[in-house]
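Researcher: Good morning. I'm working through a list of sequences from a screen, and I'd like to move beyond sequence-only analysis. For each chain I'm collecting a predicted structure so we can compare shapes side by side. This is the next one on the list. No need for commentary yet; just the structure.
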Amino acid sequence: MAAPRARTRIQARNSEVILDAALDVFSQYGFRGATLDQIAERAGLSKPNLLYYFPSKEAMHVTLLSGLLDTWLDPLRALDPEGEPVEEILAYVRRKLEMSRLYPRESRLFANEILQGAPRILDMIEQDLKALVDEKAALIRGWSAAGRLADIDPYHLMFSIWATTQHYADFDIQVHRVLGQSGDAPYDEAERFLSHLYRAALAPPGPGAR
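Model: Good morning. Structure tokens for this chain:
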């Protein structure tokens, strides 16, 4: 059986343009609200041309989500067992906040999928995501048991970090309007606040506290 031919530079470029347009539309309207016509218009291509590269709206959505979940896990993978526990977790908070700042469309795409019950990435959540979270939860429990970190539930800690960092992407318009700010100003303030919040929550017990 002959190997599939590599895509040409133009084909690769068109695929990137289509996925970028699809990301715009999906992050704004969700999977159900998005249409192929909207994506084609945003990409500047005809609908038949769009379907030449991706056979369906769902194919584009799954391609985006598959790549996104792997990227989304990178900050958690970087949690270093050899590092200082409080500083490692604070660095994770900063990485997650930076991802919200740099990738707001991706964050909203992921949030929309989860709100619909994660029908297209449930296997990845139950396998890749859960395995990594379980691994890092065991690490955090070990730090707590050694007295290097507060006695804190690692799963709910991670849920809290996801909620407090991704909020700035998923509720971007609310954050900017309530604060009366534009650009990156909310992220700079959020980093200072969240660092203070989590440092206080994570501080290990003092001598004789255990």
